[in-house]
Input
Amino acid sequence: MSKGNKVQKTIIYAEDDLDIARLVKFKLEREEFKVTHFPDGEGVIEAIIETIPDIVLLDVMMPLRDGISILRDIRANPKTVSIPTIILSAKGQESDVVKGLGDGATDYLTKPFAPSELVARVNKAISWQFLQ
Amino acid sequence: MIGKFFNQGALWTTTMAVLALLFVVGMLILYCFFLRFVSNSSKKKQFKLYAGWEKMVFQYLEGEKTTQEIMALVPRARYAYFQHFLKSYLLALKGDDFEKLSALVTNTDLFSCLIDQLVHGDEQVRSESAFFIGLVRARQAKEHLIRGLEDKDEGVYFNCALSLAKIGAIDTLGIILGQFRIRKKPSRDLLLSILFEFGTDACQPLLWYLKGEPDAFSISLIVDALGHYRYYPAGEEILCILDATPGYDVRINCIRAVGKIEYLGAMPSLRECMNDADWRVRSLAIWALGRIGDDSVEEELVVYLGDENWWVRYRAAEALFSLSRKGREALSVIAQHSKNKKAASVTRILLTDMKVGG
Amino acid sequence: MVNISIIGALYIYNYFALTYLLTIGTIYFVLCFVSFKTIRKYSAKVSYIDIKDLFRYGNTKAVSVIVPAYNEGNSIINSTSAFLQLEYPDFHVIVVNDGSKDDTLNNLISHFSMKRVPYGMVDSIDTMPVRGFYRSKEHPSLLVIDKENGGKADAINTGINASKDPLICVIDADSILERDCLLKVVRPFVEDENVIAVGGIVRIANGCKVEQGRVLEIAPPKKFIGKFQVVEYLRAFLFGRTGFDAVNAMLIISGAFGCFSKDAVLKVGGYRAGCIGEDMELVVRMHKILRRQNPNTRITFVPDPVCWTEAPETLKVLRSQRVRWQKGTIQSIMLHKDMFLNTDYGWVGFFAFPYFVIFEMLGPFVEFSGYIVFILSALFGIVSLPFAIMFLTVAVLYGMVLSITSVILEELSFKKYPKTSHLLHLFCAAFLENIGYRQLQTWWRFRATIEYAFGSRGWGKMEKKGVGK
Output
């Protein structure tokens, strides 16, 4: 995977657990993604509309705005409706997962999670998007 | 006159007492600022330390550093900090990265340090290290954890049991259940969380223990756990207990469990429970029948919409709603036209709940 | 002859007042240290077990957050949105519009796109009639109840009637809750089945940076009247209540933030409508009725689920608030006076209740008359200089030591105020609080007690500014 011959994919990632966010960001950047991280739900949807990232990762439980409601906004806007979106939720919030998939999440992951799995799912979501 | 009771000496003593008090207060304030200063600087230090570790540990996760290289950077005096640093990652991760991080604890000096704390620390330290041992899934600490189950302190015992569950030491389930029976503490919810932590592997042994369990409290716990796992093979045994036990606490848990398991064989007993004098038994039995999908009770359920207890009425409405289209239609008619106020009210609530969600 | 006996009486009274002040101070001192130990133990426990960990398997206890609202049109949207964003796996928000005369209800309906729905009640505590229920598809966990005006207790009871959850959390419409406070306040219920009520600490939001019903930055109030209250709250909540809690004798859970087992509230018949201090009255009644049924019943206090509230910033509003509190305390005590020194209630009967009677109810009398007698005695030269110094030391300096200790203990435990300069402000306030402010409180409470005794039991209005503007 060399730089240059490939356009860098952009990710918007909202997560309030900062330690984990740094690790995930580190892992994704190693895979040549450009990651913009938000520590809470504020301003996420605006940034998504403005930059139209290749993929969005949303934590369900966040201060200021929860992931599910951001997801609904993504799907409600014709500009962003087709952006693949992955939901991250804590164990014990399976109902959120159901809600998230119902509201148009591309994929989901429950915590605790393996970062390599997250990267794999991000790649999968993007390539599917590409095929469609 | 009376004032002369006090001579000069008394005046002097009082003044000194006042001054002493003032002095003490002043020192306390200074001490406080000193503490603030110390905590600020240690926070800064901690921040720097963590930032350094974070960089190293990320590289380590990518395979660019070895365990020894990392641990060389962490002096023994900083183990407590390092433990704290690792905690948030250990809680949120699984898979390869988790294994690698836990190896930082289990394959190094840190581990013997943890065991030492578990054996010799004060209550707080013992609890904490028991918890941490479970967090890193240190199977080699099993014997120490088992000994910890006998600890006088409730917190230590609880954390040891939790950690044994996390490392998957199913063979210790019997000892843990024995402790439950004796202590009946901390609380049902916490004890259940231990059983849940074992995962589905515990079902078979739990069923085995259930058959010989004499204690009502433990029976309810085990039944609850089996229900949570929806362990179908346990259905028959739980049903036997339901039919044979008079105690409400046990019966209620049994009904909930067969409902969760959706044990078909329970239907006749559940139908009988619908007539029980206790409203909790009635409402749960109705709920369970609704879950299992027994549509033979539909007509009877309509009667229960007028039960004296709200929960019985609500569960009946819920069951009718989930059982069939016919049931749903009946509900909307009742909501609008029934003369029975209780039935109409509860149906309206249910229909709105179903429409709105939540 | 007459003269001498008057002088003698004054003299004795002076000593009595002195002893009294010394006793109350010492009791507080002991409470302080008991609480300090409790808090240290609590913080250590919290720091290593993730509260969310306890709820991983869906064995959570669902909570209904009940928000009584009367003329809260300015702030209701912000506060309701903030309540809906709390971090807890399973909860509902029930806003009860208590016949507001402003646009509270309309604001809610339009902002949350709510619709009037056919609905009903779960339980049946007597309340004023309900005019309508409102729900919304976008916010399934929100329920708005519109009812005829009946006062705060009545509104809360209506909310309780509509709740399906085993726990209820009662808060003021202008309270600002920290996001994880439900997790923390529910924890005692999970850890011990005998817990029926949990109070949380209330802190003062004045001076903090507040946006959309959330505290973004913590700072002490700018005005001294606010800072005094911060110190006062620290003393009362952090150290007073934790101390009482250590012996399971807590008699107050603030109306601004408390969590109850719904069953327990129903068993005692809900809040008492028309009561001035409905929050204290409920807790006293719970002790009275439920501890008799189950001696292990616990009513407890958790020092760190934080609720922020706006404190009065003018003397006039502050006075009416304090008058109301004093009257509420007296009323709660008088309604349950048979608990006084009653062996059935353990520490409540022998410590907490007498404490409230002697120091909270009668305190202002003794203190106020003590000051008057002291001044008179000093004017007539009855007391000696050493006694005068002693009296002032106990009355003022001892109070200062207590206030300062409260600030120090806060610093040793929670350290909520981030800057060192904040600490300086608090110490200044702790120092000055005892010169004037506390005496003013005594005077207000004295008058409230007199007023109560002579029949004026009015509510006293509290004017509020909207939070988060």
